[in-house]
Amino acid sequence: MISQSVRDRDAARKRADSAKQREVFVPKCTNRRRRARYESKDIDWLRYYFGAGSGCTDPFTYSFTEQQCVMISVIRSAIQWGGDQAIAASRGEGKTTIFERLMLKYVISGAIGFAVLCAATGEHAAHSLEAIRDAITENDRLAEDYPEVCVPVRALENTPNRAHYQIVTGKRHDNGKLYERHPSCFSWCGREIVFPDVPGSPSALAIIATRGLDAAVRGLKRKGRRPEVVGIDDPDTEESARSEDQAKKLEDRIDRALGGLGGQQRVVARVMLTTLQSRTAASFTFTDPKSKPTWKGRRFRYLLTPPDRVDLWDEYIALRRNALESFAAGTGNDEHARAANTFYLANRKTMDAGAELANPNRFDSSILPDGSAIELSSLQRYYNEIARLGAEAVATEYDNDPPEVEVGLETAITAHRVQTRVSGHPRREIPPGCILLTQGIDARKIALHWVVRAWRPDGIGYTIDYGVEEVHGTTAGSDEGVDHALTRAIHSRMETLRNAPYAPKTGPAMEITETLIDAGWRTDAIYRVCAELKATGFAIRPAMGFGKSNGVVKTRFTAPVRTTTDRKTGDGWFLSRKGKRVWLVCMDADRWKAWEHDRWLTPIGQPGAMQLWGDAGPNPDRLSDDQKSHHSYARHIVSEVEVEEVVKGVIQRGWKTRRENNHWLDASYMADVAAAMHGITIGGVAAAPPTTKQQKGWFDRQ
């Protein structure tokens, strides 16, 4: 039996161990002079305490740019002197990181006693608070010079509850006097943190709280204190960026709820850091000095001055997109991947001339296995993003210059809708019941974009394959050798069809019944290659679209009244003789693009519905790998949309270009026209074949 004295000794030992765990010794500042010197200069403080060697996970590795210095200056001004400031900078420029770290500096140095971090949602705001926690627990330089903050926090060892009964001992930072066994009484979890109550610490019991703008923010008060500074990080949501009503509600919340957080003697300072999403967004209003003059709005660009040779960058973008689309279509290789970089290397001096960028350090210089760098300059990064996202998105998120909002009603088609409509059949497999294969090809200087479709008699269509055929042998800024290179690429594509035909799951392979290739560019070369291929047994014809698509007023589509020796009528298309061996397919581009969009809006299973190859996957709320692979193709399909606009009080229909990359859209609607030419109908609507036996017989003989 254990004696009472043994139990008492064991209890005493446990109390001593517990007290030892609770008690934390706080050493003095390693270098008080250094701390004071850097606190007097924000840039120096950030560069030292968050530079290389500090131990933080995302250090500042280069000198701040002019724009970043301006950001630091205006943030300091708002924190020190009050007032409001709105800054719009490009995505990824580091504005949020700079603000988080500056706020931390002013809190731990004692300049701010209560700060609030706001974001569009509470979850986003919590990310900023987590970054501040990480800085204190991981940053070695902060721990050396701010031990009164970092040591008590690190002693928690990822157990926040210890903060409630922690005891600290050490010498005061303000006067050097000894203090012993003082309760630190702080909080290090949840959506608010309270800094350790270490005697002599400038930040004792200081508070940093987070709030989402989607929740109540009025009346925020803690320990008898009200916020002194509110940081507002990217306040807009997708809803407020698209809806004027939602943007106005957000604007009112920032003006009234956040503006009223201060105390009786000090008005709260507000600093907004954002990237513009649209001209409708609340951020656009706050960064516009005319709309909100007291916010002193500033908008920063990524590209200050464009390069002199934009035409060369257009070719670069085409090469880059060609590579992205080739890999998306499953046909990419190392040659595709290197083509754009090789082009830039060969022409870099000319392509860089005249360009001025806000931050020359923003590019990925990582080395690939072949010894080449992923990116060579910040300018290349800018145009890489244009190739990936489109010029409109880059103007918005990188240059803070969103395009003008066009008032009108768009069709309901979206890229997400297109890419999710998969048939369950694998790529290249012809689904049951299909009687016809057609192909459309859009020709460019560096690539052919092609689409192959299988059709059932009721107009149900399946996009069973699409891809990119690279055009080799062309030279930037020159037409030399273009016709020969284009001819070779078209021959290569058609020979691929002959050598690898499409087939159903069971049954014989089927040939492409009709191929239409765009002859709007390098027309004579397209005519010649079509004649050559037809002589070798391929069913291929040149085609041209006429209409107002792409925002350019072209020759209006006018069908011939009757069939003649030089023209043969169709519905939405007609044939026009071009020499002895070539008949051009003339198409009503506006009508067929609208018809193409209708196919994706038709419910699956109904006549006229269009689907892509691939499986949907087990989770209906998450895109499958096949659906994800159709992302680029789907963006092409919706690159142009039909809209209704009010012009001088009259509703007019027209076409709006969402993005420049529309090549698979053109190839797709040409495949539709090819199907209509061979009798595919949808209840007699739009896709109708020639109407008389005479025309039908003539057409079959051509």
What would you note in describing this structure?
- The N and C termini lie far apart (111 Å).
- The model is unreliable at 550-554 and 684-701 (pLDDT under 50).
- Strand 21 (567-569) and strand 22 form a beta hairpin.
- The radius of gyration is 33 Å and the shape is elongated.
- The chain has three domains: 19-299, Rossmann fold (3-Layer(aba) Sandwich), CATH 3.40.50; 304-405, no CATH class; 410-514 and 588-701, Nucleotidyltransferase, domain 5 (2-Layer Sandwich), CATH 3.30.420.
- With 702 residues, the protein is an alpha/beta fold.
- The chain is 38% helix and 19% strand.
- Helix 4 runs parallel beside helix 5 and helix 14 packs across helix 15 (391-397).
Largest beta-sheet details: 9 strands, mixed
**How many strands in all?**
26
CATH topology of the largest domain: the name is Rossmann fold
Task: Give the DSSP E fraction (strand runs of 2 or more residues).
Answer: 15-25%
In short:
This protein is α/β, with parallel strands linked by helices.
List the helices and strands and how they pair.
Blueprint (H helix, E strand, L loop, with lengths): L3 H19 E4 L5 H8 L2 H8 L16 H16 L2 E5 L6 H14 L5 E6 L2 H17 L1 H6 L1 H8 L12 E5 L6 E6 L8 E3 L12 E6 L16 E5 L4 H5 L1 H15 L10 E6 L7 H5 L11 E2 L3 E3 L4 H19 L5 H19 L3 E2 L20 H12 L1 H7 L11 E2 L4 H6 L8 E2 L5 E8 L3 E9 L5 E10 L11 H18 L3 E2 L9 E5 L4 H13 L4 E7 L20 E3 L3 E5 L5 E6 H13 L8 E3 L12 H5 L1 H7 L2 E8 L2 E8 L5 H15 L15 H9 L1
Parallel strand pairs: 1-4, 2-9, 2-10, 3-7, 3-8, 8-9, 14-18, 15-19, 17-24, 19-20, 20-23
Antiparallel strand pairs: 4-5, 6-7, 11-12, 13-25, 15-16, 16-17, 21-22, 22-23, 25-26
Helix pairs in contact: 2-3, 4-5, 5-6, 12-13, 12-14, 14-15, 17-18, 19-22
